[in-house]
Design a protein that fits this description.
Layout: H1 3-11, H2 20-28, E1 38-42, H3 47-60, E2 65-68, E3 80-82, E4 85-86, H4 89-110, H5 116-130, E5 135-139, E6 157-160, H6 168-171, H7 175-182, E7 192-194, H8 199-211, E8 216-218, E9 224-230, E10 233-238, E11 241-245, H9 250-273, H10 275-278, H11 282-298, E12 307-311, E13 314-317, H12 323-336, E14 342-346, H13 354-361, E15 365-370, H14 381-391, E16 395-398, H15 402-412, E17 418-422
Parallel strand pairs: 1-5, 1-6, 2-5, 6-7, 7-8, 13-17, 14-15, 14-17, 15-16
Antiparallel strand pairs: 2-3, 3-4, 9-10, 10-11, 12-13
Helix pairs in contact: 2-4, 2-5, 3-9, 3-11, 4-5, 7-8, 12-13, 13-14
Domain Mur ligase C-terminal: 304-424
Domain Mur ligase central: 41-262
InterPro entries: Folylpolyglutamate_synth, Folylpolyglutamate_synth_CS, Mur-like_cat_sf, Mur_ligase_C, Mur_ligase_C_dom_sf, Mur_ligase_cen
């Protein structure tokens, strides 16, 4: 069975919270995760952006960095990256064969059947161990406490990004309950970097850090100063150093500062153990670190997050897929484009709070093109269109798929209009090149 066929079979197993199956699988594989220096991140929004920044900084400093990402935008192999290069199909096929044999042994012993996400997690650990990465950046799939990635026992650092409402059926109905689930990745062995969050979220994370006897490095709005913002990026000051990011939106400045704080800790810890760095003059080493941080931030690209696909008409692609993401997207559009015609291209998943998302997004909409994502969780385009009509008086057109919606919107748009494809990350891999 090739790995594409195996992936399709594993998809049928759905999502099963808990660690028993992944623990058993990793036991069969010899626990490759124990041989990695892992930075582990949980949160509702911003996880990918923070790790895009952190990866870019570490690569700029000369480190070999592995990233495990889900979902992806360009292709399946994008899930497993080293220094931005995707795994080859041949290597992935070989690793899937190894894991498939381990799965069979586990099932014979315990009857447990790992899910696709658990298998992908195991593959990422195997791949990064084989390639001897300096750091492995691992994103939680959902929650934290019972997520498959939480088999990591001794991370170098944990990070908690922005926390808001999402996956309530699994994580709880209040921000405190959701934050408690996310805080489950905090381990006694290392501190946690906490992005800007509400007071109730910060309190829960602080309590867990205190319980685990580790430092909580909190990012606050007073830690940095935004110097300028444009629809194409921002400049800001952090610790008296000037930085520029090409990722638009105020929230991306906050994400960048979270990554900078994480890198500061990792650089400091590396200095304590790295004799080669100690041979360098202290001031020169500090200059090298600052250069890596500045260069890493400005070179960071992160597809699907207020990504500019086209400039005339201006076309953004954004993965806003929950109310908090929609709120941030709406704030960005209101800041820069109140005098422009906003055209949305939308597909959403039926288990998301799409009505709340629409309440944030629709006040600026002039036209909306909707479709059903090619996903078993995809919401009917008709239901989405009807819901839009409930919250706004706007023209809605139903299309067969994302590409039909994109080309129809481009065909009708004028050069000074603003197009925004949003609602989910799940359909972005289907999007054809529009340039």
């Amino acid at each position: 069975m090739n790995y594409i066929s195996l992936i399709e079979e594993l998809k049928k197993r759905g999502s099963v919270p808990g660690l028993d199956a992944i623990e058993g699988l990793l036991e069969e594989l010899g626990h490759p995760e124990d041989n990695l220096k892992i930075v582990h991140i949980a949160g509702t929004n911003g996880k990918g952006s923070i790790f895009a920044y952190l990866s870019s900084i570490l690569i700029a400093a000369g480190f070999k960095v592995g990233r495990y990402i889900s979902p992806t935008i360009s292709c399946y192999e994008e899930r497993f990256q080293i220094n931005g290069e995707y795994i080859t199909k041949d290597k992935l096929a070989r690793l899937y064969n190894i894991v498939e044999e381990a799965m069979k042994r586990e099932e014979e012993k315990t009857g447990l059947k790992p899910t696709l996400f658990e298998v992908e997690t195991a593959i990422s650990f195997l791949y990064f161990k084989e390639e001897k990465v300096d750091y492995a950046l691992i994103e939680v799939g959902m929650g934290g406490r019972m997520d498959a990635t939480n088999v990591i026992r001794h991370p170098e650092l944990t990070v908690i990004s922005s926390i808001s409402y999402d996956h309530q059926a699994f994580l709880g109905d209040t921000l405190e309950e959701i934050a408690w689930q996310k805080a489950g990745i905090i381990k006694e062995s290392c501190p946690v970097v906490l992005s800007e969050n509400s007071d109730e979220v910060c309190k829960v994370i602080e309590q867990e850090a205190t319980k685990k006897k580790v430092k909580c490095i909190e990012i606050k709005p007073t830690d940095y100063e935004v110097l300028s913002e444009t629809p194409y990026g921002s400049t800001f000051l952090w610790k008296e150093q000037r930085y520029e990011t090409k990722l638009p939106g105020r929230h991306q400045v906050s994400n960048a500062v979270t990554a900078l704080a994480a890198s500061e800790y990792l650089f400091r810890k590396d200095y304590e153990k790295n004799n080669a760095r100690k041979d360098i003059d202290k001031k020169l080493d500090e200059m090298n670190v600052k250069s890596a941080q500045q260069g890493g931030i400005i070179r960071t690209c992160w597809p699907g997050r207020l990504e500019v696909l086209k400039k005339e008409p201006l076309f953004y692609r954004d993965g806003a897929h929950n109310p908090d993401g929609a709120k941030k997207l709406a704030a960005f559009l209101q800041k820069y484009f109140t005098n422009k015609k906003i055209i949305y291209i939308m597909g959403v998943l039926k288990d998301k709070e799409y009505k709340k998302m629409l309440r944030y997004l629709m006040p600026m909409a002039k036209e909306v093109y909707v479709f059903k994502p090619k996903n078993e969780r995809g919401l009917s385009a008709q239901i989405l269109a009807d819901t839009i009509k409930e919250v706004a008086d706007v023209s809605v057109t139903i299309e067969s798929d994302v590409n039909a919606a994109v080309f129809r919107a481009l065909d009708t748009a004028k050069p000074d209009d603003v197009l925004v494809a949003c609602g989910s990350l799940s359909f972005m891999e289907e999007m054809e090149d529009i340039l």
